[in-house]
Amino acid sequence: MIRLLRRLHGVLQEALLLLTRLALFGLVGITAVDVVGRVAFGAPLGFAYELVGVLLGVAVYGGLVRAAWRRDHIRIDLLQPWLSRLPAFDRAREAAVWLLELSFFTLLAIYIFRQMGALMRWRETFLFLPLEKWLPLAVFGGLASLAVVATLAAVVPGLRPGDGERAS
User: Percent of the chain having pLDDT more than 70?
Assistant: First the structure.
């Protein structure tokens, strides 16, 4: 069962990595075309602002799942030399950070889905993109929910990153 979950996780991580990369390349491409069109031809892409916002959300939330799983968040190590002499504090700090991450990602997913529900009721669409605004939020909410699951799985023995490499 653990092997199946690890394999499923690997496929999901690769798909999210591809999605994140495509979103970032899309951001660069759309922005470049918009700037060239605006400066050289006086004709910017009307939908560029909206599409860049959607692609930025996909890139951020897609990357969030990987960061949560690998526990690869930004760390400020200003006090690290002093705190490394206190291993009990380090374990408590790690537990507190994990709980904070879990709480934040859970609240983020809930908030996104609440906002999505409101936009569904209002049937609000983008100004230039022929798309209702709740659709990208459904994707963001799904990715934020995956970040919650990844945060939980990152501390489960056998599912933690690195456990499979040592066991294989």
Answer: 93
Q: Please, what is the Cα angle at 20 between 7 and 126, to 5 degrees?
A: 130
Q: 14-18, 47-51, 74-78, 114-118: which range is least confident on average?
A: 74-78
Q: Is the pLDDT of residue 33 over 60?
A: yes
Number of H helices, E strands in the chain: 6, 0
φ/ψ (deg, to 5) at 119: -70, -30
Q: What are phi and psi of 125, to 5 degrees?
A: -115, 165
Using H for helix, E for strand and C for coil, what is the string for the chain?
Answer: CHHHHHHHHHHHHHHHHHHHHHHHHHHHHHHHHHHHHHHHHCCCCCCHHHHHHHHHHHHHHHHHHHHHHHCCCCCCCCCHHHHCCCHHHHHHHHHHHHHHHHHHHHHHHHHHHHHHHHHHHHCCECCCCCCECHHHHHHHHHHHHHHHHHHHHCCCCCCCCCHHHHHC
The C-alpha atoms of residue 113 and residue 104 are separated, in whole angstroms, by: 14
Mean pLDDT to the nearest integer, 106-120: 97
166 has pLDDT over 60: no
